[in-house]
Write a structure and sequence with these properties.
The chain has 10 helices and 8 strands. By secondary structure, the chain is α/β, with parallel strands linked by helices. Helix 5 runs parallel beside helix 8 (206-220) and helix 9 (223-251) packs antiparallel against helix 10 (259-292). Strands 7-5-6-4-1-2-3-8 form an 8-stranded mixed β-sheet, sandwiched between helices. The structure holds uridine-5'-diphosphate and magnesium ion. Uridine-5'-diphosphate is lined by residues 7-9, 11, 39, 67, 69-70, 73, 90-92, 94, 197, 202-204. Uridine-5'-diphosphate (UDP) binds next to strand 1 and helix 3.
């Protein structure tokens, strides 16, 4: 059986077309389930879904108790998938459901465990978003040691073994494309052109994307800590030289009043220290969050 995980957040406008296209694409696949995760929608998303659920038992709904975010919603869906093969995709038809049978076929041949949708284009996104995404992925692939995942987003299909690996990682701060890459297994990709959102605006606010980028960087590398260390070492070196200069000036009797140099060093050291503290704070915050061990999401009701 194939399980398709679809997080939805205020998507009334796209649901009818989505369901239609999903059903049409999956017609040839006998056994499947569509696991919709309602991520605290405040429009009629849930009502529409429950209507479809009553008419077709292959449509299942996990209703979360509030909006927990894209990553948490996908996680909820993954944990409830019953299928041997599991796909995840966005609800807004940026990921074409027509590709699912092809992905399934690749996995069924048994040579691969993970098929990632590889987007050929990003033209549908705003310039600012494209620029920031590029920047993030440039930094991320450099510091995390995970190669290019720039053009593989969430759209993908994995088998049960890969899913078990993915779910074995219990961390609360989740960046699923990174985790999916991290598990290894035999991965391949299938190219597709990403469409414009069928309707409505992106549900990911800029702040949410920024947070996701930070989460990914802190979760997959210790680069921020290393940066501190390098800055610190550089600082020590520079001020060692400066110290020698000061001493020499003193002994050669040429001691300037030195207000500017004092101020500059205070600013410089002060800002390095503040940066350090901020970075350490991020780690402490994340460690604290993990140690609280709160569930990633709460379920209000399941329609299975
Ligand atoms: N989504 C969600 N919770 C959120 C934000 C988004 O479940 O807090 C869902 C949304 O309904 C969509 C998918 O996640 O199915 C991707 O969201 P969106 O298309 O808005 O993001 P983008 O494509 O701009 O990254
Ligand atoms: Mg989208």
């Amino acid at each position: 059986m194939l399980s398709v995980i679809i997080p939805v957040y205020n998507e009334v406008q796209v649901l009818p077309v989505l369901l239609e296209r999903l059903k049409a694409s999956l017609e040839t696949i006998g056994a499947y389930e569509l696991v919709f995760v309602d991520d605290g929608s405040i429009d009629h998303t849930l009502q529409i879904l429950t209507q479809h659920h009553q008419a077709d038992s292959r449509i299942k709904i996990i209703e979360l108790s509030r909006n927990f975010g894209h990553q948490a919603a996908i996680t909820a869906g993954l944990e409830h998938a019953k299928g041997e093969f599991i796909a995840m995709m966005d609800s807004d038809l940026q990921d074409p459901p027509e590709l699912l049978p092809e992905m399934l076929e690749i996995l069924q041949q048994g040579r691969f465990d993970v098929v990632n949708g590889f987007r050929q284009n990003r033209e549908e996104e705003s310039f600012k978003r494209r620029f920031m995404t590029r920047l993030f992925h440039k930094i991320f692939s450099n510091i995390s040691g995970l190669e290019e995942i720039e053009n593989t987003g969430h759209f993908s299909m994995i088998n049960r073994e890969a899913l078990n690996a993915l779910l074995a990682m219990k961390e609360k701060t989740r960046y699923i494309p990174g985790l999916r890459h991290y598990i290894g297994f035999r991965q391949t990709q299938i190219e597709y052109s990403r469409q414009e959102r069928l309707s409505g605006k992106s549900k990911m606010r800029f702040s949410a994307l920024f947070r996701l980028a930070l989460d990914a960087m802190f979760a997959f590398s210790r680069f921020p800590l290393k940066l501190c260390l390098w800055l610190g070492i550089t600082g020590v070196f520079v001020f060692f030289l400066a110290g020698i200069h000061v001493l020499l000036s003193k002994f050669t009797g040429w001691a300037p009043v030195g207000w500017s140099s004092t101020m500059i060093s205070i600013y410089f050291l002060g800002s390095i220290q503040l940066t350090f503290l901020g970075v350490l704070g991020e780690y402490i915050y994340r460690t604290y969050r993990e140690s609280q061990n709160r569930p990633i999401y709460f379920i209000r009701k399941k329609y299975l």
